[in-house]
Design goal:
This is tRNA (adenine(58)-N(1))-methyltransferase catalytic subunit TRM61. Its EC number is 2.1.1.220. InterPro entries: SAM-dependent_MTases_sf, TRM61_C, tRNA_MeTrfase_Gcd14. By secondary structure, the chain is α/β, with parallel strands linked by helices. The protein has a domain at about 10-160 and about 335-340: Rossmann fold (3-Layer(aba) Sandwich). It is about 35% helix and about 20% strand. The chain has 9 helices and 13 strands. It has helices at about 10-20, 40-50, 60-75, 85-90, 110-120, 135-145, 175-210, 215-230, 280-290, and strands spanning about 30-35, 55-60, 80-85, 100-105, 125-130, 150-155, 160-170, 235, 240-245, 255-260, 265-275, 320-325, 335-340. The strands form 4 sheets. It has a 7-stranded mixed beta sheet with strand order 3-2-1-4-5-13-6, with helices on both faces. A two-stranded antiparallel sheet has the order 7-12. It has a two-stranded antiparallel sheet with strand order 8-9. Strand 2, helix 3 (about 60-75) and strand 3 form a beta-alpha-beta unit.
């Protein structure tokens, strides 16, 4: 249901809050001052139902006639009674009948005594004042205290939306620690490769010095081999790709070399490599926990040192968690809601004996 906005209206956040604090339910009798566009009036009518009733008052005559037409058109003519009246001067048309009063007026303090007269005296009743300025709240609270209302409270209703989404599950501490261990192992492996590369260079240099009595052609060939080894352009037999001599952490030192002759008669050097690997109890534990899937080595039985690498499956389904993130902006202020209760006097003539109202303490 959509209503034309002739005045500022109440929205769901305020309507739900007011309905709850005024204890409105099916069969309640409610008084409203300041009909306006009828937004809150329609909500009250749906809440109290056919056994309840709403008396609403509007000072502006044109708005009162328009709201009355809408109530009749929407089927609330039996539930809602609309009156064109200045309640601050003339008061309400009912007395001792309402369970709750809602005041949406520029000067609600002028209608407090009239509201007190409209409220029932045989039970606890409630009042709510809807005021956009804090100065109005201060003056209204003073009058409520003077009129004998108790439990005076004021609220400001704001809305903060949240964005609820799903993200991949964050890695556990164990997984992070395992990644750090693997990184340390790779760093140690790089260090060993660099040491082996340096040893290989020294061996080649020593072999060149010991063969100084050979022919000039053989010396030149050794110099060419040494230059190729120093340049870092080595061929890996396993994947036929060029790798460095260890400067970038991927180089593997050559342990032997040989040449083959091409169709043009030139000689091209080739090299054989050995990859030093590490083995630790931590990698054995990772292998046993992961199983045989994704591993490329097992523990050696000949006492040699090899490194077991555990490769997680890239096809494993990702688990996700739901998170909520609040937006920084908040819906702007509409008005302040001032609530108060009116407690009946035990010796009131309208109190019903035996209904429990005679035990309610007196508040002055």
């Amino acid at each position: 249901m959509a209503l034309p906005h002739r005045t500022q209206i109440l929205y769901l956040a305020d309507i739900a809050f007011i309905t709850s604090h005024l204890d409105l339910k099916h069969g309640s009798k409610v008084v409203e001052a300041g009909t306006g566009s009828g937004s809150f009036s329609h909500s009250i009518a749906r809440t109290v139902g056919s056994t309840g009733h709403l008396w609403t008052y509007e000072f502006h005559e044109a708005r009162a006639h328009k709201a009355s037409e809408e109530f009749n058109r929407h089927g609330f003519s039996d539930i809602v009674t609309l009156t064109h009246r200045n309640v601050c001067k003339d008061g309400f048309t009912i007395s001792d009948m309402a369970d709750a009063v809602f005041l949406d007026l520029p000067a609600p303090w002028d209608a407090i005594e009239h509201a007190k007269n409209a409220l029932r005296k045989d039970k606890i009743t409630r009042i709510c004042c809807f005021s956009p300025c804090i100065e109005q709240v201060l003056r209204t609270v003073s009058v409520l205290n003077e009129a004998g209302f108790v439990e005076i409270t004021m609220y400001e209703t704001l809305q903060r939306p949240h964005d609820v989404s799903q993200i991949p599950t964050l890695p556990s501490v164990t997984e992070a620690a395992e990644k750090l261990k693997q990184s340390e192992l790779r760093r140690e492996e790089k260090r060993l490769r660099q040491i082996a590369a340096n040893k290989a260079k020294l061996s080649v240099a020593a072999a060149g010095e010991s063969g100084g009595s050979g022919s000039t052609h053989k010396r030149k060939r050794h110099q060419d081999d040494q230059a190729d080894a120093d340049s870092g352009h080595s061929v890996l037999e396993n994947n036929n790709s060029y790798i460095g001599d260890g400067d970038d952490g991927n180089g593997i030192p050559p342990i032997s070399s040989k040449k083959f002759r091409t169709d043009t008669g030139s000689e091209v050097p080739t090299y054989e490599y050995e990859i030093p690997q590490l083995y630790t109890p931590e990698t054995e534990h990772a292998t046993s926990s992961q199983g045989d899937v994704g591993t490329n080595a097992s523990r050696p039985t000949d006492g040699s040192s090899r490194h077991t690498v555990v490769t997680p499956s890239i096809f494993a389904p990702f688990s996700r968690i739901t998170v909520s993130k609040s937006f920084p902006e908040v819906r702007g202020h509409t008005s302040y809601l001032t609530f108060a209760c009116l407690v009946p006097y035990p010796n009131s003539s309208s109190a019903v004996p035996g209904d429990g109202t005679e035990e309610v303490p007196v508040h002055e």
